[in-house]
Amino acid sequence: MTGAKRKKKNVLWSKMHTPHCEDIKYWCRKRLPILEWAPHYNLKENLLPDIVSGVMLAVQQVTQGLAFAILSSVHPVFGLYGSLFPAIIYAIFGMGRHVATGTFALTSLISANAVERLVPQSSQNLTTHNHSSVLGFSDFEMQRIGVAAAVSFLAGVIQVAMFVLQLGSATFLVTEPVISAMTTGAATHVVTSQVKYLLGIKMPYISGPLGFFYIYAYVFENIKSVRLEAVLLSSLSIVVLVLVKELNEQFKRKIKVVLPIDLVLIIAATFACYFTNMESAYGLEVIGHIPKGIPPPQAPSMGILSAVVTEAFGVALVGYVASLALAQGSAKKFKYSVDDNQELLAHGLSNVISSFCFCIPSAAAMGRTAGLYSTGSKTQVACLISCIFVLIVIYAIGPLLYWLPMCVLASIIVVGLKGMLIQFRDLKKYWNVDKIDWGIWISTYIFTICFAANVGLLFGVVSTIAIVIGRFPREKTLSIINMKEMEFKVKTETDDETLQQVKIISINNPLVFLNAKKFGADVMNLVQKENQLLDDISKCEQNTLLNSLSNGNCNDELAQPCSSEKCSLVLDCTGLTFFDYSGVSMLVEVYMNCKGRNVDVSLASCTASLIKAMTYCGNLDSEKPIFFDSVSAAISNIYSNKNLNKLSDHSEV
Amino acid sequence: MTGAKRKKKNVLWSKMHTPHCEDIKYWCRKRLPILEWAPHYNLKENLLPDIVSGVMLAVQQVTQGLAFAILSSVHPVFGLYGSLFPAIIYAIFGMGRHVATGTFALTSLISANAVERLVPQSSQNLTTHNHSSVLGFSDFEMQRIGVAAAVSFLAGVIQVAMFVLQLGSATFLVTEPVISAMTTGAATHVVTSQVKYLLGIKMPYISGPLGFFYIYAYVFENIKSVRLEAVLLSSLSIVVLVLVKELNEQFKRKIKVVLPIDLVLIIAATFACYFTNMESAYGLEVIGHIPKGIPPPQAPSMGILSAVVTEAFGVALVGYVASLALAQGSAKKFKYSVDDNQELLAHGLSNVISSFCFCIPSAAAMGRTAGLYSTGSKTQVACLISCIFVLIVIYAIGPLLYWLPMCVLASIIVVGLKGMLIQFRDLKKYWNVDKIDWGIWISTYIFTICFAANVGLLFGVVSTIAIVIGRFPREKTLSIINMKEMEFKVKTETDDETLQQVKIISINNPLVFLNAKKFGADVMNLVQKENQLLDDISKCEQNTLLNSLSNGNCNDELAQPCSSEKCSLVLDCTGLTFFDYSGVSMLVEVYMNCKGRNVDVSLASCTASLIKAMTYCGNLDSEKPIFFDSVSAAISNIYSNKNLNKLSDHSEV
Lengths: 653, 653
Fold this sequence. Notes:
2 copies of one chain form a homodimer. The N and C termini of chain A lie far apart (75 Å). Chain A has a 5-stranded mixed beta sheet. In chain A, strands 1-2 form a two-stranded antiparallel ribbon. Chain A has helices spanning 3-16, 19-31, 33-37, 43-71, 77-82, 85-93, 105-118, 124-127, 139-164, 176-199, 211-221, 228-251, 261-276, 278-281, 309-333, 340-354, 366-374, 381-397, 406-416, 418-421, 426-433, 435-450, 453-471, 483-491, 496-500, 516-546, 551-556, 581-596, 608-617, 631-652, and strands at residues 101-103, 362-364, 478-480, 502-507, 567-572, 599-604, 627-628. The radius of gyration of chain A is 34 Å and the shape is elongated. The first copy, chain A, is mainly alpha-helical. Chain A has 2 domains: 52-122 and 136-470, no CATH class; 478-536 and 565-652, STAS domain (Transcription Regulator spoIIAA, 2-Layer Sandwich), CATH 3.30.750. Chains A and B meet through helix 21, helix 23, helix 24, helix 28 and helix 29 of A and helix 21, helix 23, helix 24, helix 28 and helix 29 of B. Chains A, B: GO terms for molecular function: chloride channel activity; chloride:bicarbonate antiporter activity. Chains A, B: It comes from Dipodomys ordii (Ord's kangaroo rat). Chains A, B: One of its GO terms (biological process) is iodide transport.
């Protein structure tokens, strides 16, 4: 008995006897994918690559955690928590094997908006001396993480609600060009936000429409306050990072373990800063105090939920779309399947539960996922192992990071965004494949740059839909079936004359309000052309009488002339996949118009629902059958009718 | 020389010599349709029916003008102006021959919203004694018409702007069920607004979301203040109107001129009211003072334009959509053509110019257009003649209407809406033809009832689009071409064995992001099924060895088995009308997957752009051709390859 059969029998059996227990088990396995893969985990084969990957991932998680927390306008340590909890929860609920959930640049950028709006920098001085009870954070810091956690909470609730409504599949509306443009635009935003650290400029938080340009305007206005030391250090870091990563890429196949240059750079920079006392000597900005340990869970500020709805929607959608693309990429590469809705649940729960642990909004990040690929990770165990190392950082190493210069961190972030920024290269592909998608890319990118990632995403989706809707009424709706291909079928049974009076048109589209009008016009054009040909034919026949040599020439262009007797039109509805009221009434109108012009219409391969709708909608000829199973049946019918007519003609004679 | 040829020659000639003069003439004829038809007006044939129609139309214009002005919350006389100016301007610019432009219930209902919001009833007492200089209207009345005229002005500007952007064709988005539901809902609103006159209740203006239900709630709360006289008079009027109109309809063919019951009723009621002094004796509400003449033109209040943007958009869209449907209906019935954009211009100018003459927003009304049909009108001359009679009413008869009871007017309005209200009968049709369109009708109607006509229209359009978008990913994307029909083509040339290893799939849809995923899954399912069959086949062959009698049985279900040698897939792209990046990359993916499974893929009848896109997008096999002009070419190629292989096999042997 095969496994599938046994399972089926079990399900059947359970339905009869104890439905609840078995159903709950099945549901749990479906909703908790960890129960599916963990028991079959191959320790021998997978543990070593997963540990290696886990260590490398931990380095990225810590670096990005610190950086994206600063991007979110909260204290860096909250980024470390954000690299820990969401990863654990995703490992339990998620199906993507190479999806490294944690802090994410795009969602951090969006939630920073809410943080800076509700708890602006200027309010710091008012509350700076009131230390709260949690790990010695100031009230100001606690208020800020409260807002970020509230965004995370609400975004998670939205994602879970979308899971309940099974909206996961609605992501088909977000096409590849839109995701590419939106992430590239957001990466540009992140680079822009790091410029102040790279140059060592003190700068207020700038956001809102066109904020992107105001930031650069501010930088150019204050070009004199640039710290040369910071510029030097960041250029050095960027050059080293790019070079070493390039070399890693080149020699990846020869030497199996790559140099964790991020880790090396962080350690080197921290030590250099500590020993040369750069903070006070050169005025370099450093990360500062990082408290040890994890504070006890606390609910996010529920009172401000209504104030962060916009940001929460942005985080929920942008985070989910970007993460799903990564999970699907992994599934495609390693031939397994990912359930859209289960991913929604996994990310939703990651956000909701983590928000109680002082976490900023989370999602899967492209750089980390690419890292998992390149270090050969096999399962989510790699992510769980990375969590152990993140925990070690939180409890032991964290405080040592005090002297990590901000400009080095910013350099790591900027270089890490390389993968997103080189998506500019896609532009050439889109240009060659489809100019319209190229246009959508460009405009989505511009919208993302000028406004924000969520605005760009919305614009991209709406314009993609609008363009498809707008293309329908312009495109051809039918094609004339090549008579040659049909000829052979009927040739044996009938004479050529009959065949030439039959025109077979195949409908290639769903027939809906978008293209019904065009369809009607197209068919009537064809029928009218026939009628016009009639005049030409008679002329042509006269010519033929005058000069019988030019006969072949004259018939060349007039392939299927319609003589004074009834001409026939066969509509092949195989391609008519679905229809609405407008489509059916147009079909009936075409039928009526053709009848008025003495053209017989037959419909081949209609679905039952189309036949029912047409019968109801139109006052169809009840004497003659007009619906046929296939084109050949329709042609046979026309042929037999013709023969009947001829017979009656003969009998009259 | 035919007219068309001469025209063409003229155009050619004008392009070479004096382009401007001829171009301007051509443009004028195109944009001023009156220049096209007026010079050829057939006085003998058309004048008499047009005069008869004009007189009957004037009766409707006056009645509806008075009523819809009250519906707009302005003084009734402004409705008379609104029955005059827009009709003249439409006659000049419009192309619909039976389109009677003037006051319109739906647009009046929308503009009433703006009037009551900006100049509420309560402000009357403050300004009632300040008589303005215009025909003795109070400042209050002048402010109210100022708002209505501003709505009309802005709506007209929006329509002209849409004309400039050539957005007329965008009305294909508004389907018949949506128009039907929206107009039925609006008619229900109009009936509701007349209830207070029918019952003789004094009632405040109620609008806003769910206002519909609040009105009936108010009526039931104040059921005791109903005036029995008003109820009696209105019931009598309604019964008489319905009966006589029904009789008119029955005997229309026998007696050519119908009884103008509206006119008779107005005259009778006015006289009765005057002689019995109903106004003071029974407290019946009457129309009141109607000033003589037309005031000099005056610009609408430009200062409040920004406050009436919502209403202006509603009027512009609802008015245009309803009017275009009528013009197209007339064009279809009498076999001429109507230009969507020219109609936009005509209605836009009607609204803009009329707004300077104290007019409420205008559009074409269904009742009046139906009247023009039934009285046999031929051209817009009927409308121009009706304008003469409306002018007579304004200058001579108007003041006599003082005693016209409001309840009689309301009865005429309600009975006049019969045509819109019986659209409920469409529901049965939609149910039988397409359940989804039925659902759209119901929900659009509910939205219109609960909110307003413009909200309903928007909801209907958005849900129609959303449903089409949502249906795409679910519907089948391809169909397997019946091998029987192809067989005959190739039979003569090749052997059956080859044919059976070729699968021809026809793509029946545009291949875009909406259905690309489904398409890929469908094709791969087919290919996988083949591979599964392989196993069964080998089993089957064993069976055959065991029991050669059951051979035929066994092959029955396994029609096209795929042997260990290469199997072929021909994708017929005739029906692939357009594509985007997602579609092309899915095609390339399918090609690659099939190659991985040792299945040869050929594409037949691709467009040049598709070939270019696929060549660029995918790393296609450069050795073998994969694009063919037709399915038969692709099959021939497969056949010749097979033969080559066989030849080489033989030579090896």
